[in-house]
């Protein structure tokens, strides 16, 4: 699944059973292990900080440093516990812990490895895929997990649009799915599909889900513990407060080392950092990353390690191109001026990305270019020569003049003399949104454009309603790019106005759709990558998506509670929001009373590790053709997977 970070989008307060934008998200296929996709995969490896606010009440008690409970502080809320609906990064990350997927990603290099399936193969025409399902996986209620559960999951997504909200792009090309036996799954395709070894879809137990009447309303939160077959079992959930999971001692890959895992929600990120300092939580992920000020405040703190690595997400400004349903019905109130490519590009040209990276992210990010972060080397694209829309206010002013928006006094006006004013959706809990909003007001104001920065706790309502002009956006990208590209296709548009859908910001264009279909059917990694880059080039020229930066993953944990924990990629990567469950599954408790003398995972001798600065992108990039794909998911200012 992907995670949208929509700026997640990120959608802050999670709409029920909705998507996960901004950090979103999402889930993808490796750049491709498709080269080895016809054979069985190898065995799996055995802005200034404000005064801290008070943590919310009714939350779990102080984290236990007894080696049994690992508490993670998050700034994002769960949008849904249903894997058929969830899109936010926190939700999809939890689902990776609860349910198995057919395949997983090696934490070393993102290559495809066995998951619920131990091996797979395709027919010569690549239209029939056969998966061998492991015989040693059980649901947490003791019943065997079989190929029939996988067939049920995919067939439900194929037959019920409500079950396809989060991951429907993976199954839209499926013709037939059967389970001839408990250990054999057969998927027949309409046309070749390059994501068959990276289907980021949680497999659910048929005996539990077969009785669900309405997949659009069932949030999977009416009975605990929730039956799953992943490394953890979800045992308790309090909306906007916490999620509790216990270790699955029967997990086929081996039991987690912590007995309990708790995700605790903090509306105030500074409060989460303060909780880490006090030892009330074991780990803090930020929103989705710690701010430079927060990371700096942790430097020198005893028993705290700050981890920083190349991020798998992008931070962008999304333009409302005119909200519409699949059948072409218009809705919302997006500004008509943004239907003009010249206006969109003018806004693009008047954003100084370098200043934002230097002043807002303070170097903890890489300047944005193409749609896919440089961490995914095979798919990374950037504009060259005249195509590049570098910071150029004079050129921006000229484009606005050509579009018919001339200066009258200190304001630009249309032909009727109406001032050119825009609104931009901002996540109230994200300090980066607010800081960048101030820069935009200044830069666009110099061009005669007015800007209202609308910072909301829940941006999902106006976003889904199409009642915005621009929005801070972002997605977490997975090793395969199919999902994060699919959210810009016509097929991702909502069935009805104002309904939740897979679309990011209502883009629908035939050329882009044709390119999407082309990459989805291409098994040759190099050729597929070329098409993916062509799609990014189109997105860039359109002006619909202005990728400002690729933020680093900046997070921290207590070394007196966590002795060691796996990053992804292992050489230099992130802990929270991985394409897998490796971090929490591998986390090793520090000995009770150890005082953090063993920082593990690369901590310095003092037990307080500073922020790793100046990570060179070349070192970040996985050696090899790793790829990102996440679709999946979206989450607006929240973090779609």
Explained architecture:
- By secondary structure, the protein is α+β, with helices and mostly antiparallel strands.
- Helix content is 22%, strand content 19%.
- It is built from 16 helices and 24 strands.
- Strands 1, 14, 15, 18, 19, 20 and 21 form a 7-stranded mixed sheet that branches. It has a 7-stranded mixed sheet with strand order 9-10-11-2-12-22-13, sandwiched between helices.
- A hairpin with a 6-residue loop joins β3 (103-105) and β4.
- α7 (341-349) runs antiparallel to α9 and α13 (510-520) packs antiparallel against α14.
- It starts with a strand and ends in a 21-residue tail after the last helix.
- Residues 1-61 and 593-641 have low confidence and may be disordered.
Overall shape: it is globular
Which residues sit in consecutive blocks of at least 5 with pLDDT less than 50?
Answer: 1-61, 593-641
**Total DSSP E strands:** 24
The overall pLDDT average reads: 85
Provide a count of the helices.
16
Structural class: alpha+beta
Helix content, binned percent: 10-25%
Cα-atom radius of gyration? 23 Å
Strand percentage: 15-25%
Q: What is the terminal-to-terminal distance?
A: 6 Å
Major sheet attributes: 7 strands, mixed
């Amino acid at each position: 699944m992907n995670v949208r970070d929509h700026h997640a989008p990120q959608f802050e307060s999670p709409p029920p059973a909705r998507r996960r934008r901004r950090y979103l998200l999402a889930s993808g296929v490796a750049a491709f292990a498709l080269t080895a996709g016809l054979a069985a995969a190898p065995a799996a490896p055995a802005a200034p900080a404000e005064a801290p606010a008070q943590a919310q009440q009714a939350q779990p008690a102080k984290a236990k440093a007894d080696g049994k409970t690992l508490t993670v502080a998050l700034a994002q809320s769960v949008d849904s516990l249903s894997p058929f609906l969830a899109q936010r990064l926190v939700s999809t990350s939890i689902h990776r812990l609860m349910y198995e997927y057919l395949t997983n990603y090696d934490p070393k290099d993102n290559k495809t490895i066995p998951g619920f399936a131990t091996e797979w193969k395709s027919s010569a025409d690549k239209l029939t895929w056969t998966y061998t399902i492991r015989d040693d996986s059980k649901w947490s209620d003791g019943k065997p997990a079989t190929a029939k559960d996988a067939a049920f999951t995919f067939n439900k997504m194929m037959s019920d649009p409500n079950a396809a909200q989060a991951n429907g792009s993976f199954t839209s090309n499926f013709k037939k799915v059967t389970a001839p036996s408990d250990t054999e799954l057969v998927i027949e395709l309409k046309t070749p599909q390059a994501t068959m070894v990276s289907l980021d879809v949680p497999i659910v137990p048929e005996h539990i889900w077969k009785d669900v009447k309405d997949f659009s309303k069932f949030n999977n939160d009416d009975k605990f513990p929730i039956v799953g077959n992943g490394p953890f079992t979800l045992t308790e959930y309090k909306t906007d407060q916490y999620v509790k999971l216990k270790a699955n001692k029967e997990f086929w890959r081996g039991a987690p080392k912590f007995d309990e895992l708790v995700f605790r929600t903090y509306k105030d990120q500074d409060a989460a950092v303060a909780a880490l300092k006090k030892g009330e939580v074991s780990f803090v992920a930020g929103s989705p990353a710690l701010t430079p000020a927060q990371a700096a405040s942790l430097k020198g703190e005893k028993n705290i390690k700050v981890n920083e690595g190349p991020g798998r997400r992008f931070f962008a400004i999304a333009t409302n191109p005119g909200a519409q349903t699949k059948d072409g019905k218009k809705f919302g109130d997006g500004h008509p001026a943004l239907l003009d490519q010249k206006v969109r590009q003018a806004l693009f040209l008047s954003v100084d990305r370098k200043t934002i990276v230097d002043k807002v992210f303070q170097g903890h990010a890489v300047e944005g270019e193409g749609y896919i972060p440089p961490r995914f080397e095979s798919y990374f694209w950037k504009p060259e020569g005249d195509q590049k829309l570098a910071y150029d206010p004079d050129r921006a002013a000229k484009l606005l003049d050509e579009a018919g928006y001339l200066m009258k006094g200190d304001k630009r006006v249309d032909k009727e003399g109406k001032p050119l004013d825009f609104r931009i959706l901002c996540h109230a809990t994200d300090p980066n949104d607010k800081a960048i909003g101030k820069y935009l007001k200044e830069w666009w104001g110099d061009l005669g454009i007015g800007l209202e920065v609308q910072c909301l706790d829940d941006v999902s309502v106006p976003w889904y309603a199409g009642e915005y002009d621009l929005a801070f956006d972002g997605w977490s990208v997975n090793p395969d790019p199919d999902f994060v590209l699919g959210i810009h296709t016509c097929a991702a548009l909502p069935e009805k106005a104002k309904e939740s859908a897979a679309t990011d910001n209502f883009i629908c264009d035939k050329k882009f759709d044709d390119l999407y279909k082309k990459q989805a059917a291409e098994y040759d990694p190099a050729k597929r990558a070329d098409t993916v880059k062509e799609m990014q080039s189109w997105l860039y020229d359109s002006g619909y998506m202005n990728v400002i930066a690729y933020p680093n993953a900046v997070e921290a944990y207590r070394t007196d509670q966590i002795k060691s924990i796996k990053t992804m990629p292992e050489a230099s990567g992130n802990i929270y929001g991985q394409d897998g469950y490796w971090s929490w599954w591998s986390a090793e408790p520090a000995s009770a009373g150890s005082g953090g003398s063993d920082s593990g995972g690369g901590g310095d001798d003092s037990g307080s590790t500073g922020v790793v600065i100046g990570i060179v992108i070349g070192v970040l990039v996985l050696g090899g053709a790793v790829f990102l794909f996440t679709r999946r998911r979206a989450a607006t200012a929240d973090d779609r997977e």
